[in-house]
Amino acid sequence: MNGISTTSNIAPNLEQYRSWFAPYLAKQSERDAQMLQTALNLAEQYYPHDALTVSGEPVLSNLMGAAKMVNEMDLLADAVAATILADISSYCDHWQETVTEQCNATVCELIKGIDEVQKLTQFAKVDSLATPEERAQQAETMRKMLLAMVTDIRVVLIKLAMRTRTMQYIGSQEDSPEKRALAKETLDIFAPLANRLGVWQLKWQLEDLG
Q1: What are the Cα distances from residue 42, in Å, to 45, 48, 169, 207?
Q2: Mean pLDDT over the full length of the chain
Q3: Does residue 151 have a pLDDT over 70?
Q4: How distant, in Å, are the alpha carbons of 4, 17, 33, 40, 63 from that of 20?
Q5: Are the C-beta atoms of residues 111 and 74 closer than 8 Å to each other?
Q6: Number of C-beta neighbours around residue 206 at 10 A
Q7: pLDDT for 113-139, tens place per residue?
Q8: Residue 86 · residue 162 · CB < 8 Å
Q9: pTM for the structure as a whole
Q10: CA end-to-end span of the chain, whole Å?
Q11: Residues 31, 103, 118, 65, Cα dihedral to 10°
Q12: Helix (H, G, I), strand (E, B), or coil: what is residue 76?
């Protein structure tokens, strides 16, 4: 999915992302606060400290940054927890049972949806050698597929937050073919998708960062 285990010595620098989490928990019901704290505990338990996203950012830092955006979109606590745990399937074989038992079934279903979206975007790429018209059509087909495959639109919103966080991170990294490919995909697929869903705060960021 989002992350890969590496031999890097880079450890997640989570303090800047944790700063929003404690006040956020304090505003939740006791039940939701406990569920959210459990989600973070599971993430810290299963994500290796040297696990990085494909863009090179520590996985937990990436997902905590995305979870902050999900919170800012006023989505429910289940969606924030699912964002924090979005990569757990890469590191825990029995993750569905674990998440359902320790968080709830809704969080588990959201993670399953995120996993499916990640797989679709990984394997159904827009052809870089196609004409502009063909690229536009391929990108539109991809956007329609993303919207059609999810039963909870929050899955797509979480994916948009995850891509926005990734773009924020790679914006400070050295230029590379991989960075340019992510930027192009962002402009082709994710910024227009944010526009279609009316998520203006992410649309503007995705366009500017792309």
Answers
A1: 5, 11, 24, 33
A2: 85
A3: yes
A4: 26, 6, 13, 13, 13
A5: no
A6: 24
A7: 999 988 887 765 655 656 667 667 777
A8: yes
A9: 0.86
A10: 21
A11: 50
A12: coil
